[in-house]
Amino acid sequence: MGTVFKRTATKPLPVGAEFFSRKGQRLAKWQDSKGRTRTAAVIVPTEGKFVGQERIVVETPTFFADYRDGNGHLRRVATGCKDETAARAVLAGLEKRAEKVRSGIITTAENAMADHQHTVLTDHLAEFVATMQAAGRAESHVTGTERLIQRVIDELSLRRLSDIQAAKVERWLGQQTMAQPDKPAMGARTRNSYLVALRSFCNWCVGRDRLPFNPLAKISHADEKVDQRRQRRALTEAELSKLLMVARLRPLAEFGRETIKTPDQDPATRQKRSRATWTLKPLKFDELPAAVELARERLKDNPTFLARQERLGIERALAYKLAVTTGLRRGELASLTVGQLDLDGDFPHVRLKAADEKNRQGNSIPLRRDVADELREWVSSLRIGGSGSANVLAFRRDAVAVELPASTRLLTIPKAFCRILDRDLKAAGIPKRDDRGRTIDVHALRHTFGTMLSVAGVAPRVAQAAMRHSSIDLTMNAYTDPRLLDVQGAVESLPSMSVTSDPTESRQRIAVGAENFAHCSVAVPVAVPPDFSGNSQSTPVTMLATSSEATFANTLDASADRATKNARCSMKTTSVLKGGQADLNRRPPDPQSGALTN
């Protein structure tokens, strides 16, 4: 038989409390924040961290219940009831369910699901997040998934697991895909991200015996091909060359920009000599060398800062080049350390850690030899002065090279790397968005790598391995820009097929073709009854030369003007039979006259 009770706890003595005794027990009296007079017993704990300190004893406002579950274990649960009668009713329900478990009417898993129905949904979410972190999921993935689920919980006012219903969630997703005055419409890919996050949470609840089934399993995904909000494009070879040059020079050229007056300003404002009356001239690709020379002149008295900007340009260009020639993602680039490089072997490569890779496999990425040479020089410069920071280390002639720890970061890739790329694209004169609405961002460098592999004629299976894709369709379609493929050149490589308008010449060609055709064995597929023995379902029919060659040529002349469609036949040169014997002395037709020669 279970019991209901209120739990007690100790708290520090209230400020301004008055003490008195009643029936031999010491009590404290004070007024709470609402002005009500409160009274509680005062005790001195004999164990715990509050030993020897006077504290008041308070009771919880709600009742708790102690009972034995279906497995005979003593359980203590919060009833959530302030009334004792209501708390005893909750206890009776718990004991009734425990009796059903003992008698086999319901299973232990079903009983556990019933217990979890009273747990707050945010507590389930906190345990789900802890499970993902314990499984080694990427921090960005964990925080992103939690953010998506928490938004749905807040906007739909979900409190318990029973509140997660397919109709509610599907209605909310549909509302987000419609444009609203205060926010744009949600894209198909974003909608699917919310659905995937919610489904993974519900699947976790099913696996932990908190839900009997996934209530969101039948909600269909949105078609991302129909509603694509961001389409990336690959850089051309000329654009890539300009981008690398701008990345190399712009950090220093920024300090060589000239000032220009701001047009259309109020004369009163101009007299104040404020910052609003002038601005820096935008950088253009043709003006970069002049801006670099001017910057060097301005910074000649600060060689340390000058060397830092030079080094920053080298690092940025190297980051772009490494991304384009390896297909590394931004996070993978940022995770690289000096210890992951193998530049001295026959096949230079970089070893990716499984924890830093998207597919969590860990791969060795081959490096082009020119890129490996540049990385070797970069690591050597990092050793100068013994500092691993690529942004503050200056070139010094008197510096001594020291050994770097293997954990030294290879490149500094900031979170605002995409904005840096946008400024480089603007200075290079490369449009961020093309005529088809496709954009260039950091991940577009990976698209450029995949497109360059296809343009170079690399086999699709090899390109898939280089891109580290699980599907070859992803490599050939999503990561290959069709505009950069030489489709026109492929069409031009087809054999020439000339058509003449002269009827006489056309008849001569057809007649020659008839003579040649008469001495060929043509395998024509002929339909036969189904053969269940596994043999071929077509029979080759051999057409032999006869004396009626002229008649056959006339037939071809008569049908020359009629188009034949979908004619498929396999032709193979055979010996011409004469009386059942092969004529080995017969020669092919003369290419000039078309006549057969013996």
SSE layout and pairing:
Elements: E1 3-5, E2 8-12, E3 18-22, E4 25-31, E5 37-43, E6 55-59, E7 64-68, E8 74-78, H1 84-103, H2 108-116, H3 121-134, H4 139-156, H5 166-176, H6 188-207, H7 237-253, E9 259-261, H8 267-270, E10 278-280, H9 288-298, H10 303-326, H11 330-335, E11 341-342, E12 349-351, E13 364-366, H12 369-383, H13 417-428, H14 444-455, H15 460-467, H16 472-478, H17 487-492, H18 503-518, E14 520-523, H19 549-558, E15 570-573, E16 577-578, E17 581-582
Antiparallel strand pairs: 1-7, 2-6, 3-4, 4-5, 5-6, 7-8, 9-10, 11-12, 12-13, 14-15, 16-17
Helix pairs in contact: 3-4, 4-6, 7-9, 7-10, 7-13, 10-12, 10-14, 14-15, 15-16, 18-19
Salient structural properties:
598 residues, alpha+beta, DNA polymerase, domain 1, hpI Integrase, Chain A, 4 domains, five-stranded antiparallel beta sheet, three-stranded antiparallel beta sheet, 17 strands, disordered C terminus
Summarize the model shown.
With 598 residues, the chain is α+β, with helices and mostly antiparallel strands. It folds into four domains: 3-106, no CATH class; 121-207, Orthogonal Bundle (DNA polymerase, domain 1), CATH 1.10.150; 237-261 and 275-483, hpI Integrase, Chain A, CATH 1.10.443; 503-559 and 568-582, no CATH class.
